[in-house]
Amino acid sequence: MSKLLILGAGGHGRVVADAALSTGNWDEIAFLDNNNELNDVLGKAVVGGFESYMDHREDYSAAIVAIGNNVTRMIWLDRLERAGYEIPSIIHPSSTISRFSQIERGSVIMAGVVVNASARVGKGCILNTSSSIDHDCILENGVHISPGVNVCGTVHVKSCSWLGVGSKVLNNVTIGFNVIVAAGTIVIKDIPDNVMVAGMPAKIKKNLEMKSDVGKDFFIPASYEWERNEVRTRSV
Ligand SMILES: CC(=O)SCCNC(=O)CCNC(=O)[C@H](O)C(C)(C)COP(=O)(O)OP(=O)(O)OC[C@H]1O[C@@H](n2cnc3c(N)ncnc32)[C@H](O)[C@@H]1OP(=O)(O)O
Questions:
Q1: Alpha-carbon distance 188 to 208, whole Å?
Q2: What is the pLDDT of residues 106-122, one digit of tens each?
Q3: What CDD domains does this protein map onto (predicted)?
Q4: Which of 53, 81, 143, 157 is the most exposed place for a label (fewest CB within 10 A)?
């Protein structure tokens, strides 16, 4: 029997649960959430707070993190992996994912998403509703692509960056680590690490700090420093 534990029973957690149920891959789903007023979400049990994750290891073989904040999501994903949970990727059946793309564990792909050939999506990413990731793109770990975003071919988005709703990225651009691309922005040139950009074309609006004790290396394991040539020749 396949049982999935979802960390986070908020709006994003409900969408992840819905996508997981749509796959037909899970016999049972339950949530962990720190809101102790939640007992039942979408008719599924909330079986404890986040910190109780070790207690459920025997009952639930697989777990996924449904937390919107990129850094927090990656930290919890790491804890679950270390605890021995299987970390699946959840891919909504109405998405169109190229057989020549690669999706790493812990990533969730919502309804209406398109991922084209030779794209590579790292660990713990969110590809939100009706976004598109075109050929040869590299999304490193912990990236969030918001609803309606279009990423053209051969774009590289580094770890923990967030592309806001409806933003668009032109071909061959690199977006740095821990970047926020504001809603509706058009990115036409490379963006450095740790900034928020907005506008058409994108301009830097502010510098950002990584609000976490863990260093940048935590988010970019060597295995995810992908070479573009390797991406073009790999298939699932
Ligand atoms: C399923 C789901 O719901 S997934 C979630 C999807 N939601 C989103 O994608 C929301 C994205 N959020 C945004 O775009 C927000 O505007 C944020 C996160 C960028 C705001 O970040 P903040 O750091 O709070 O920025 P702040 O509001 O201080 O604005 C800083 C500057 O950027 C500008 N700015 C902020 N957002 C935008 C935007 N979308 N377009 C143009 N300019 C913008 C502000 O006007 C301000 O400009 P100024 O300094 O010239 O006055």
A1: 20
A2: 999 999 999 999 999 99
A3: LbH_AT_putative (cd03360)
A4: 81
